[in-house]
Amino acid sequence: MKKISVFLVDDHEIFRNGLKQLINSEPDMEVTGEASSGEDALHILETARPDVIMMDIRMPGLNGLETSSRLLQKNPQGRILFFSLFDEPDYVATALEMGGRGYILKDTSNKILLNAIRTIHQGKYYFIGEVSDVLVKKYLDARQGNGGSQDISLSRREEQIMGMINQGKNNKDIAESLQLSIRTIETHRMNILRKFQVNSIEEAIEYCKTNNLLN
Question: Each residue of 139-157: pLDDT tens digit?
Answer without folding.
Answer: 666 666 554 445 567 777 8
